[in-house]
Amino acid sequence: MVQTISVGLLGLGTVGTGVVEIIDNHQDKLMHQVGCPVKIKKILVNDLNKKRDVYLNGTRLTKEADEILTDPDIDVVIEVMGGVDLARDYIEKALANKKHVVTANKDVMALYGSELLQIASENQCDLFYEASVAGGIPILRSLVEGLASDRITKMLGIVNGTTNYILTKMSEEGRNYEDVLKEAQELGFAEADPTADVEGLDAARKIAILGTLGFSMKIDLDDVAVAGISNISKEDLDYGKQLGYTMKLIGLADRTGNKVEVSVQPTLVPQAHPLAAVNNEFNAVYVYGEAVGETMFYGPGAGKLPTATAVVSDLVEVVKNMRLGVNGNSAAIPQFGKNLKSNDEVTAKYFLRIHAKDVPGTFAALTTLFSEQNVSLEKILQLPLTGNLAEIIIVTHAATKRDYEATLMKLNDLDVVKEVKSSYRVEGDDVR
Amino acid sequence: MVQTISVGLLGLGTVGTGVVEIIDNHQDKLMHQVGCPVKIKKILVNDLNKKRDVYLNGTRLTKEADEILTDPDIDVVIEVMGGVDLARDYIEKALANKKHVVTANKDVMALYGSELLQIASENQCDLFYEASVAGGIPILRSLVEGLASDRITKMLGIVNGTTNYILTKMSEEGRNYEDVLKEAQELGFAEADPTADVEGLDAARKIAILGTLGFSMKIDLDDVAVAGISNISKEDLDYGKQLGYTMKLIGLADRTGNKVEVSVQPTLVPQAHPLAAVNNEFNAVYVYGEAVGETMFYGPGAGKLPTATAVVSDLVEVVKNMRLGVNGNSAAIPQFGKNLKSNDEVTAKYFLRIHAKDVPGTFAALTTLFSEQNVSLEKILQLPLTGNLAEIIIVTHAATKRDYEATLMKLNDLDVVKEVKSSYRVEGDDVR
Q1: Is the pLDDT of residue B432 over 60?
Q2: A288: which chain B residues are within 8 Å (Cβ-Cβ)?
Q3: Parallel, antiparallel, or unpaired: how do β-strands B76-79 and B60-62 relate?
Q4: Are the CB atoms for B412 and B378 separated by under 8 Å?
Q5: Domain A139-300 carries which CATH code?
Q6: Which of A206, B57, B198, B305 to pair with B229, CA 20 to 30 A apart?
């Protein structure tokens, strides 16, 4: 059987171009891996006449999706067009027409992944999406296969390159958020409308996908509690640093029994933790397994060739499965029911920064309040401010979210407290 | 087909016990993954009557390997007994008897891996060995599958936990090698005879396996240039730190075209490089791919459950392949010829520490010599010593190994040089 595998490509933007290049440049290696030639037959584009920066080797361009989705010769559809509704429709139609699908689309997978995997399974088709989370890191495959015999209990992910770039620059150069964001936009590291990145929405989609796969539970985007980085101040980073922490936007998925917490928030991690060394636009996912302990997967989170590499790795898997006649077997449909943890069940350490009156009794009032709320303190740093105020930085021991939030509320009512300036979660302090 | 898969286990030491526990504790998950029960039928042990710390659930113990290797009911043999010759014989016999093999044995795989994979392929059997390199990290599978469509150009691995533990303690606590080694031996992190670890031999076996798989070339143990950590002084670490570096024992595999360099040596990496944050007994492999760029895989390198998890993940893969009838397809037999780089083709940056006479003209003599040898200098640090001597620390730009070694020779002949105290390779300075 030396039949050629025909691929239909939806989209010829950055990633699509990368896919064309890799398939073209690596024909030998692909041939060795899958045992037959792989060829892109048609590509869906918006503009047939646009000048392209890639050698298309006679591949036909089309503006009609159906020319690809209903072409009986096309075996695999690769969706790299982005967007949500249209992409979802095309993926669904491709699967219904018994075409295997590889997608890099985190939005579609976070919103409709479970349904689409179900459709794939019913049609005995593969639906792979490694490129949708941290393109350059083979994390999804590692969760499914490499840690196959383990039980994953927690994941901490730096899964958004834009925010990690901004936080790295703020931290290393002592600059303000607005400053660095502006520069990042000028350099093309942040979009003109950066909301999805800086407010944590992009990270939320990715941690929903990771949680779904890692815990084998259907984690919906609505299950993810989200906070972004736009309120982080230079002072927060400085005081964090003084106490030994680095600020990262962390997507967290945590499981205790069948109860889960999934969230995205600016988080302080100890400087000695491997996540603290993940800088600039790099991504990483830190995984806790019951048996294996702690592992981390690090690499580029996006970019033309990293993402295209993940897409083509998925394509190789699809073709291998085709040759073995086992497509659709690996559609990882969630097998466990999901229960979100209540605020009594979420426990964490917290960092908080308070402006308080620099008068006798302030400390006693604060510590009494924390103690009454069952929140014990690990580190305290007090510094004088102008105007008879003190800057007080506190790192707590692990406390329930309910107790901690109640404490925050009551702090604002305390006479000696002028303002709670900021409050962040602390993770990774259990590292050896 | 709800046939039970029968496993024969060779060895019931630490890892073997872990394998028994994981298979016992995860029957449900295994059943879900592979669709049939998996049971350990027989275990090869040295002493039938020894008290065991594990529930054996009626599994038969035997002192006769042939009871396992020739039992027609046994589908998969797991080799976790260690050692070389006997383990190799058993693996070969198991394969000849059409049994799939999973091994955690780096020694056997480094020495006889290619031959054994050939035998596996001829018998249409799987031979998997994920646990042989950095047990807790699914690195081999990532190299084969996750980066399938990429071309790997370089790997830097911290692949020996004992030496990383020793170097971490020396660096963090400012202690001497002998001191820390003694403590590590008392704590059980180093063996009574630590030679294989501290002289880099264990790391050499692992980088040979990684190089073979990553480059698809047969890298023999003899191809690996090895240097260990026993001569590293506290001063080397201190001066390295002053110039922004952390000392690690790095296994390196580097490819330019079809020319390779494979080596193990104490290496200085920049403090901001992710490898510098790999501490204590943790392992990591930093991979450079042509398309994907830089990725890192981090986790425990050894330990009962991490290693056993890798073994059971391989077992899951074998059983999946059995159910699909495709065993032996994935035996990754090297496909490219190997050519070792000459000393003219190996280029690197180096750190060196010299004791020189603190007299006028010393610097000129040194810089003239480097310049004559085509080695240019990036950083120089000079400090006074007692006795009219100066401590001079130099970091070079990239130079060929031939030029650098010639420089070292001639340095010793220079009148102003009292002694070349130490010299280390520098890697990872290209990190962004």
Answers
A1: no
A2: none
A3: unpaired
A4: no
A5: 3.30.360.10
A6: B305
| Residues of A taking part in catalysis | 206
| CA-based torsion, A335, A339, A340, A346: positive or negative | negative
CB B261 within 8 A of CB B341: yes
Burial of B420 (0-12, 13-18, 19+ CB in 10 A): middle
Distances (CA, A) of B276 to A276, A295, A430, B279, B305: 11, 16, 19, 8, 25
Q: Tell me the two tokens of residue A233.
A: 């101040």
Q: Residue B149: which of A296, A299, A316 has the nearest Cβ?
A: A316
State the binding site of B for NADP(+).
10-17
A299 SS3 class: strand
Interface of A with B in 241-260 (CB under 8 A): none
Q: How many beta-carbon pairs below 8 A join chains A and B?
A: 170
Residue B356 CA: distances (Å) to CA of A241, B235, B243, B323, B368:
40, 16, 19, 69, 15
Tell me which residue has tokens 């409050």.
A423
Q: Is A398 exposed, middle or buried (0-12, 13-18, 19+ CB in 10 A)?
A: middle
Does residue B333 or residue B119 have the better pLDDT?
B119
Nearest-angstrom CA–CA distance, A251 and A204 = 7
User: Residue written as tokens 């640090």?
Assistant: B381
Q: Indicate the angle between helix axes B85-96 and B106-122, nearest 10 degrees.
A: 20
* Contact flag B277-A273 (C-beta cutoff 8 Å): yes
Give yes or no for a contact between B104 and B15, defined as CB atoms under 8 angstroms apart. yes
Intervals of CATH 3.40.50.720 along chain A: 5-134+304-324
Q: Tell me the fold of A5-134+304-324.
A: Rossmann fold (3.40.50)
C-alpha distance from B413 to closest chain A C-alpha (Å)? 42
Classify domain B347-426 by CATH number. Answer: 3.30.70.260
Q: How far apart are CA A285 and CA A133, in angstroms?
A: 10
Secondary structure of residue A11 in the 3-state scheme? coil
Query: Is A11 an interface residue toward B (CB < 8 Å)?
Result: no
- Amino acid found at B220: D
Compute the C-alpha angle B168/B169/B173, nearest 5°: 120
Chain segment B163-183, per-residue pLDDT in tens: 999 999 999 999 999 999 999
Residue with tokens 């940056």: B349
Q: Is the complex ipTM more than 0.85?
A: yes
Which chain B residues are Cβ-neighbours of A276 within 8 angstroms? Answer: 277
Predicted local distance difference test score (pLDDT) of residue B261: 98
B138, A285 Cβ separation under 8 angstroms: no
Tell the CATH topology of B5-135+304-324: Rossmann fold (3.40.50)
* Cα(B21)–Cα(B227) distance, integer angstroms: 38
Query: How many other CB atoms sit within 10 Å of the CB of residue A259?
Result: 14
CATH 3.30.360.10 intervals, chain A: 139-300
Q: Is B144 on the interface with A (CB under 8 A)?
A: no
CB contact, 8 Å: B297 with chain A? yes
Q: Which letter does DSSP use for residue A222 in this model? A: G
Residue of A nearest to B278 (CA): A274
Q: How far apart are CA B43 and CA B67, in angstroms?
A: 9
Residues of B annotated as catalytic are 206
Check residue B332 and give its pLDDT: 65
Give DSSP secondary structure letters for B346-362.
Answer: -EEEEEEEEEEE-STTH
Which residues of chain B does CATH 3.30.70.260 include?
347-426
Q: Among residues B186, B152, B302, B170, which one has the least CA distance to residue B249?
A: B170
The answer for residues whose C-beta is within 8 angstroms of residue B60's C-beta and 6 or more apart is B41, B42, B43
Residue written as token pair 């449909």: A333
Q: Say what the pLDDT of residue B330 is.
A: 64
